[in-house]
Amino acid sequence: MSAALLFAVGGLTSVGIYLITARSLSQIILGFSLLGHATVLGLLVAGGAAGDAPIAGTAAVADMSNPLPQALALTAIVISFGLTLFLLALAVRQQHLTGDDQVEDDLEDQRIAQGQPAENLPEETTEEITQSIEGGIP
Amino acid sequence: MLWALFLAHVAAVPAAAAAGRTSMRAGLFTAAAAPAAAAAWAAAELAGGGRTNTAELVWVGGLDVAIRLRADSLALMMTLLVAGVGALVMVYAAGYFGRNAAGATRFPATMLAFSTSMLGLVWADSVWTLFIFWEMTSVTSFLLVGHKHADASVRMAARRALVITAGGGLVLLAGLIVLAESAGSSALTAMEPVSGPAAATAGVLILIGAATKSAQVPFHVWLPGAMAAPTPVSAYLHSAAMVKAGILLIAVVGPALRGVAAWKWLGIAFGVASVVWGAVGALRHRDAKLILAWGTVSQLGLMVTLLSVGTAKAVLAALALLFSHALFKAALFLVVGEVDVRTGTRDIGDLGGLHRSMPTAFAVALLAGGSMVGLPPLLGFVAKETAIEAVLALAGAERAVVAAGVIGGSVLTVAYTVRLLHGVFGPGPPTPVGANRPLMAAPAAILGAAGVVGYAALSGVNRIVVPAAAELSEKADAYSLIQWPGLKTAFVVSVLIVGVGGVAGALWASRGVGRLPAPVGASAADGIVDKTLGFSPRLTALVQHGSLPVYLAVMGTVAVLAAAALASDFAGGHLIWWDHPLQAMLAAAVVIAALAAAFVGSRLGAALALGSVGFGVTGLFLVHGAPDLALTQLLVETVVVVGFVLGLGHLARRFPPVTGSWRSVRIMVAAAGGLAVTAALAAAGTNPTGKPPTLDLVAEAVAEGGGKNVVNVILTDLRALDTLGEVVVLATVAIGILALARVRTRPQAQTQES
Questions:
Q1: CB proximity B457 to A under 8 Å
Q2: Is residue B29 in some structural domain?
Q3: Which of residues 686-705 of B touch A (CB under 8 A)?
């Protein structure tokens, strides 16, 4: 097991966690992407040592790297790619609606935390929400 | 057959709700059909010798996750009671509620849902199945008790019942887990006897769970409050059904725990305390329904005591009591409900003289009350005789404690029964009564008459009760219920009980009803319930505060703790510095680029740093010998960077500045998370359990997949369905992005137009 790869996995995970706990959605996307890289490398390093490409006939089978985690990792790469782009589209959309891409605290949960029953919505908030919806969706 | 009956019940729940749309009566009659069928089936099975039926639905065999049902003699007896009384009570409810009562879609369906859960509980043959149905009865009974939910006191009573029984359910779950672990099996029947501290723990936890459900002192406080329910609910839940769940549980796990002293003595303590305190409560109250509810606490205590004693005769007596109690207590509740509906009150201070105006109800009340007291020729007499014989056959301290409880409780039972009957039907100016209600009178009469019929046809009752007792205690076969015991000690004790209790009851009743008793313990219980309910929003506010970053940080911390447990498995022997020097350089570059992505202030810079990470990872793939991954990563990374640059055009140039202590918390969580993942991965990677299956995979890829690139063959051949799913995900993402991006352009177009 390669310590260098372990270091890469640990470093990417750390930075990834730091970024996904940010308030800015685009930073969260960066963090998510880094965590995706860490996961894929983790799969590889757990699957065995490096070697030649697992393509029959190009190298001795004994020297080949383990193809199984590679097949799993390929799926992981593609899915995290799709998710990254989707989150990016969400960030752009939120920027358009609210003027920034900040992830705010859930209003409903804050209300519970303050001990206010859900049915007593403060009027301002309702207005704000209505306005933002009307401003965003024609 | 079990499945057919069970599914018929399940299917009838929506049917009852639909029929309830036309009228309450239609809904209730629809709901009564399924329990009636179940009761008829149980009666036929019992008449045919009581064959054991089983059914199971295995979900995850290896984890023992399955629904296992089993209808043995005991379960058949319970089915007869639960479903039979259930069907009668539903018919009665049709008379109790007016033709256009509110909640007609809700009530019949909920009643049937409760009946269904109860049937499942009776048939359950695995501790897990039992627990699921146990919780279902808690929830459905909460809905039934809270039927008149417009009234705040009703809501409070329902909540109190739910908090206590559901809390008991959690304790029970813990007990069942410990029991199943120490017995090595989750099957309830044929469970091996267990012993030792684990068994004692399991016994105590299970007893507490059962005591909450069966309203044993001090957990009985919810039962009188639950009388806020409509009377049919009280008659059903508090005679035949829910309160019997705890008794059944104690009976069923009893054989496995019989050798455990803690189980036996805690059970006797619960039982004796409830026998006495329940009877005292019944003597203090003046609401007829509350008197019956407190009487139920007392009677259930008697059953718990006898089951905890656990001798063959005591078990037989407990089941005989259970059987007769279901009949007479349901009958008494139904009579009180009829009195309530026809006179408008249940207060024994206001009632009187009803023996003239409600003769049928009076006759039923006499039969049922006589059975409760233990008079011949009624089933209750036989049960009480057997109980006293079983108690007198004990020895030492056990005999002293149990006899004092059982005999003292019986005297008080006679007293409160006399007081109740005297108060409602006895002399005095007759209370004006409303019109006859045949639908209410008939089910009460059937249940009241069952006591006499059961006594006359005692051999039939023996065929039901004795095999059921034999399921729990092998030697119970040797006994049977006897119509007339002759002049033995037990009989003399019985006569004394009735004599002393009768006189005491008459004296107490002639003294007048007195003022309403001050509640004992109820306020403390309400305090606990209030605190629990008040704690819940605060806990919710604490854990569900709505901040996404904090949620993630908490999850990260928990993951760190989980990974820390793995780190001790680390074995240094398999660790090398690198597979190739290039790998070390690339790894360092990747981490540096990642740090840059995190700490550079501008969005464009971060996007470029992310791209560098991706290309570095591509290099690592190549070094590792994974050209397919490298190729994919290269394409993906290019598109992501292009996407970022395009998307960033719409975002602010720089990230909002981050400061304060939250940043330090994030850094700490991040560092710990990275270390934990590294440690866990190192522990896993340095403990290989075998060689990678490369040889087999290569051979099969060529022979079966017809391709040389093994990774490609795995993806398109072995995992073809997964790959198809992946394509679907990508297509969905593309549609989603398109939708999000399209909406963006419209408002601008609008502003231009305007």
A1: no
A2: yes
A3: 686, 688, 692-695, 697-698, 701-702
